[in-house]
Each structure stands twice: as C-alpha cells, then as structure tokens.
Amino acid sequence: LKKLINKLDAILNSVTMYKQVLYVLITTLVAAFILSLFHDFFFSAGALVLTALVLIIVCFIANKALAVLTDADSNTESWLITALILTCILSPQSSVHGLGLIALGGLFAMAGKYLVTYRHRHIFNPAALAAVILSVSKLLPAVWWVGNPHLFVISLLLGFLVLRKIRRFEIFFCFAAVSLILSIIIGMGHHLGVGVVVKTAIESSPIIFLGTIMMTEPMTMPAERYTQLIYAAIVGLVFSSQLSAGSVSATPEMALIVGNIFAFAFSPKYKLKLHFKELKKLSPDIYSFTFASDEPIHFKPGQYMEWTLSHKSDLRGNRRTFSIASAPGNNELEVVTKIMGKASSFKQTMLELKKQDGISVGRLSGDFTLPSDKSKRLVFIAGGIGITPFLSMLEDLISRQERRDITLFYLVSGEADYCFNETLGEAAKLGVKVVPILTRDKPSSQWIGQTGRLTAELVEKGVTGHKDCTYYISGPNALVVAYKDLLKQAGVKGRSIITDYFSGY
Ligand SMILES: Cc1cc2nc3c(=O)[nH]c(=O)nc-3n(C[C@H](O)[C@H](O)[C@H](O)COP(=O)(O)OP(=O)(O)OC[C@H]3O[C@@H](n4cnc5c(N)ncnc54)[C@H](O)[C@@H]3O)c2cc1C
Asked: Which of 14, 422, 460, 497 is the most buried (most CB within 10 A)?
C-alpha cells in the first residue's frame, strides 16, 4: 500500500495544483455528460454542453478584459476552473433565456474576482459569489447537481486526490464533521434516523464537492492551520444550518461566502506587485532572485507565498509556490530555486527578468515557522532546495542575534549545491550545529561533511536526547515522507515532526 501511495504521490507531484483541480473538474463533467446520455439524469447532455460552453466563453472574455482593466496578473487556469465549477453547481440550461442567465453568472464570478478586492486580493470564492447573487436575486438558484448519488464514488475519489495533493484532509474532515453533527441534530428534531441523515448528507449533498474543490481555494482560505480549521467549522455550520431570512438562506454557496468573510478578517489581506531587483547564480543549478516592494512586507520566517509571473506559459501554468528565503524586516523578498535541464516556461522567464520587471505575490501561508518557546531544541532536515525556509529562519535569528538550540542536517546531492556558506557560517557562530550530508556524488578531498543517506544512527549520534526535540523537514515530497518515517522509527513522536512538502520536483 505504501508503494502505491508513493506512486500516487509522485504522479500528483508532477502536476500543479491548479492543473489537478482542472483535470478533476473535467473528469466530473465528462462523467456527468456520459450519465446524462444513458440515464434519466437531472438534465440533458445538450444542456450540460451548452452551459459549459457559455460559461467558458464568458469567463474567458471577462477574465481577459478585467485583467487588462485592473492591471492584474491573471492565472492561466483559474478562470477556466471557475467556469467549470459554475457548470457543476448551476442548473444546466438550453433555452436562450436560461443561457443568458448562465452567462450573467460567469460575468458576476469574474467581476467578483477582479472588482470585489482588497489590496489586489479577491475576497470571495468567485463561483460562490456568482451563485449567491443569482440565488438571492432569484434569477437562477444554484442547484449543486454535482452532489448526487450517481456521482458520489467519482466525487469521493477525485476529492481524495485533491486533498492528498494539497494535504488538507484535516480541513475537510473538520468541515464534514461539523456539518454532519449539525445535520444529525436537526434530523433528530424531525424524527429522522442518524443513518438516513448521514447517508443523504454524504451521498446526495454537495458536501464532498464543496469541501474538497471549493473550500480549499487558496486565495480565499485563511493562511494558518488553526484559522483554517475555524474557517472549515464555520462553513460546515452554515452549510447544514438550514437557516433563512427573507430571500437569503444558508445555501452551500452562502456558507462559503460566510467562511470567506472570516478568512478575510483573519488572514493577511494583500497581494503585492514586486519589482525584480537582482539575480545571483549560486551554483550551476541554484539561483537566487531578489524582488523589491514599494510597501512593507510582513511574514514569519518559514512561510511561503504564491508567485504569479505573466508570460506565455507552458502546461505548468504561470503560478508557483515559493518559500521566502530571506528574513523579514525590509521591503525585499528573496526566492531561491533550482533551475536545470528543460526548465518550465515560468523558470525560463524568471531567468530573463530585467530590472523593475513585475511579479505578483499573494496568499502568504504556512505554519512551518519557529516555535514561540525559545528553549525548544530543534532539528532541521533540509533536502536540497528545501533549505529555503530554514535560510529565512536562520537569517532572521542572525539579524536579531538570537540563539536557539538547532541542529541542521543539510542534504545535497552534489557538492556545488552546498552554496549558502555565508548564512550557515554566521548561524554556526550563533551555536547552530550544521551537518552537511552529500547524498549522491562521491566526495572530493575538500568535503567536510557526511556522505550517503541521513540515517537513524546519524540522528541519534548528532542530537542528544533526540526523542525530545522538535523536527522540521523540508524538501521534495518523497524525501519528506521517507525521513518522517525514519524519525518515527527512531522513536520520535509524529506530533513533534513538522513538514513542508515542496511539490513539483
Ligand atoms: C510550500 C511549498 C514551498 C516551495 N518552496 C520552493 C522554494 O523555495 N524553491 C523552489 O525551488 N521550489 C519551491 N517549491 C516548489 C515549486 O512550487 C515548484 O513546484 C518547483 O520549483 C518546480 O518548478 P517548475 O514547475 O517550474 O518546474 P522545473 O523546476 O522547471 O522542473 C521540475 C521538473 O518538471 C519538469 N518540467 C518542467 N517543465 C515541464 C513541462 N512544461 N512539462 C512537463 N514537465 C516539465 C522538469 O523537466 C523537471 O523534471 C515549493 C512548493 C511548495 C508546495
């Protein structure tokens, strides 16, 4: 089973998050199309195709026009994702009048994305906002046809893949648990059995689609774990509450909008336009990019952001997640990345950036940050480019001359990759114990570290009282999974291991 999961992770890792959501939506719609051909489904196959086409065309044009009008960097896939989500939740139409209303829904969604914003960041899930406007105005209620027993198994499978990719199971389970408990309580008030309520809620409601595809939209979700859980609980509460006041009722789309308001209130509310300042080649494959901002940038060392670079992109799209490699305290952000072989169009464009060229950053997120308790003994395990969040933490400690008990195991495949001598040297002066490990190449006579893999023995030997430390692992997915297992086998408790998965490598 482990081998199978590793294989699955490797496949999920090779596609970007936006692409994966896109494939999931296309698969759902193709399944619905086939069902509507052979079954007595809720709508005809023709209506589904017409609705999808209208939404795709309207969202494409509105997205292009509004991006130009508002001078925003638009994501290559997100307009299409919105169009397909709307296809899954609005009632498919075939009349000219009905398709006109569908087109209006597409327009509302795109307008919500570009015009209902705060400091360039959109506040509401665009599809949910469009559905709320259509429902409250009584133009076209969202029917959420995607939540039906015929599509249950496929929704469950696809939802699992999304959650596995983004590792947000706890958010989904929190949402589902709150929503199911409330449904059971309300059901008992109506003398309904628990089994019937749960079966209906899971099979015949949009709980899976909403919780896996829509609730996890990164831009409108809180940045940190505990606020994400509150957000999920709020969406679950409203979703199952069956409350209504006049024409406003607690529909799934309304539940999401209420959650978005919470997220907006409790998360960093900005998207910044940065200007390219400097490129440094640190090794044959490792590059550092520095970007400057006109506004102050607030973040915790170890956090990451979403970077959007306007360019004619390849299939991997124009958005990437990068950890911030520099310390807070000035108006600059540094990204360190590996560029080798046939690089993506995103990275090729990064290499061609000229002074003052723009890049957008937003969605500051992550709990991979130093604990507030300064006496905690910490072990950092960095796999290759996974060093970046640690660089930010160490730079921050250096700038404040703060001492912490830290052992850093830094795994590199080639000696040239060990290229942060300045920061690591300064950190060592503050008492940070750095253990370099060369994993692939044969060491030269100058290599002063270990060779081979990081083993349980090496951890036990290098860290006194290793079972009582807090471990941070950062790097490519396979490495993080392997070393988390290794630490657990060495007696470290799962809750003392914090991970940052660098998907995409
Ligand atoms: C929380 C988090 C933090 C992260 N922080 C960092 C960070 O600090 N630094 C960092 O470098 N990365 C970081 N990443 C990973 C980053 O988001 C990218 O996924 C990664 O850098 C790969 O970039 P790329 O897609 O541009 O592909 P590349 O690096 O260009 O290539 C990666 C692989 O994809 C293949 N490939 C490239 N283009 C294509 C294509 N068009 N079609 C098919 N295959 C292709 C390449 O041959 C190569 O095998 C982070 C990820 C997460 C989730």
From this structure: 497
Non-local (6+) Cβ contacts of 111 within 8 A are 62, 66
Q: What is the DSSP code (8-state) at residue 167?
A: T
Distance 232 CA to ligand 1 centre (A): 29
**pLDDT digits (tens), the chain, 505 positions:** 888 888 898 888 888 888 999 999 999 999 999 999 987 788 999 999 999 999 999 999 999 999 999 988 777 789 999 999 999 999 999 999 999 999 999 999 999 999 998 877 889 999 999 999 999 999 999 999 999 999 999 999 999 999 999 889 999 999 999 999 999 999 999 999 999 999 999 988 899 999 999 999 888 888 888 999 999 999 999 999 988 888 788 999 999 999 999 999 987 767 889 999 999 999 999 999 999 999 888 999 999 999 999 999 888 889 999 999 999 998 999 999 999 988 999 999 999 999 999 999 988 899 999 999 999 999 999 999 999 999 999 999 999 999 999 999 999 999 999 999 999 999 999 999 999 999 999 999 999 999 999 999 999 999 999 999 999 999 998 899 999 999 999 999 999 999 998 877 7
Distance between CA atoms of residues 127 and 120, nearest Å: 18
CB-ligand 1 contact for 337 (6 Å cutoff) = yes
- Does residue 314 have its Cβ closer than 6 Å to ligand 1? yes
Mutate to test the pocket of ligand 1, among 321, 391, 417, 499 (most ligand atoms within 8 A of CB): 321
> Is 342's C-beta closer than 6 angstroms to any atom of ligand 1?
yes
CB 250, CB 237: distance < 8 Å: no
Q: State if residue 385 touches ligand 1 by the CB under 6 angstroms criterion.
A: yes
For ligand 1, say whether the CB of 477 is within 6 Å of any of its atoms: no
Ramachandran category for residue 356: left, alpha or beta (phi over 0 → left; psi -120 to 50 → alpha): left
> Can you list the positions of beta strands (E) in 293-445?
304-308, 319-323, 332-338, 358-365, 378-383, 406-412, 433-438
**Is the CB of 368 within 6 Å of ligand 1?**
no
How far, in Å, from the CA of 470 to the mean position of ligand 1?
A: 28
